[in-house]
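User: Structure please.
Assistant: Input sequence and predicted structure:
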Amino acid sequence: MAAPGALLTEAGVSMAPVEDLGAGRGPFWLDDWLRANATDVLAWRRHIHAHPELSRNEFATTELIVSLLSRVGLKPWVLPGGTGVVCDIGKGERCVALRADIDALPLTEDTGLPYSSTTEGAAHMCGHDAHTAILLGAGRALAGAPELPGRVRLIFQPAEEVMPGGALDMVAAGALEGVERIYGLHCDPRLEAGKVGTRVGALTSAADLIELRLTSPGGHTSRPHLTADLVYALGTVITSLPSVLSRRVDPRSGTVLVWGAVHAGQAANAVPQDGVLRGTLRTADHEVWKALEPLVASSVESLLAPTGVGFSLDYRRGVPPVVSDEESTALMRAGVEAAVGETGLAGTEQSSGGEDFGWYLEHVSGAFARLGVWSGPPAPQADIHRPTFVLDERALLVGVRTLVHTALASLA
């Protein structure tokens, strides 16, 4: 049964069924469930897409998830903060987890879709609406299985789009207790629908935030020798710190510092008394990530010492890199092959983007994969985090099948 209002416009939107690229691959109960409920999966995604909610405010989305799971006899529970859902399916000591993120981005949609966001300044431009609908589909399909070889835990996580991420809330609430492996999918607009990209090792990078505040007595630009030249000091850090780090960490770690904002002064002939520099520091190496904060602090101190400018460093650790282990990745690849065939298997590149799925992998083994959502040529590739991002809805059914088969392979 579709969610109330799932057709999403005042007049209603007619939904033609999408092609099930894995049809007939079984098991029989999954094929039967998708034949009967594929349009519901689309409807859930469109409903969530039209009603996006920002991080830690996903109350209506949480309510919808709880309602849809409860209707098939499951017993979901909500995190103490009121957003985010955990739900077990099946019985037994062994348990694997499947995770989806449920929050939207603070963007205004510009796709022209009939089910576009109805909330100003919020939109699902990262595919979390698809992730949520896919996990709902996988969960309800698994709930109808004649028998499962263990338990499957559904984790609908809030606040992925903020640092350090809602995954920490999930871990603190006990969502990983008893879990032996965890899996997740993320939309990839560079990969065609029907394909799932996997990779052993680092898939995403750690992403930390740096805010550096500089101070000086200030003064006249005609007499820089009588003060501490704050703007010159800012320039020194801007140009030199990335270079210093490139010589202090293993170049194979994919470590990169990029500045995003700098502010100082107003008048052309006055040395300002304060300034601020902000940027992101990313690395794909877990050991390097642990060493970066003291390395940045000591490097900044050394660079600024000759200038006489004071500073305070606010170093905010973000998320760890997502590192998929070999065994979990092999199980997920087996799930993809069972879901859509060998042609659905694809490799994928390591990204400098951050993803808080990495927090789960600090506690249990697991794998993360990229779900193809591009319709293929000549359709354009609309990147995520843009107001124009769209996805091929055939990917929703591929995602359902992939998660179901990955859970079964992991519990076999």
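The first helix runs from residue 28 to 50.
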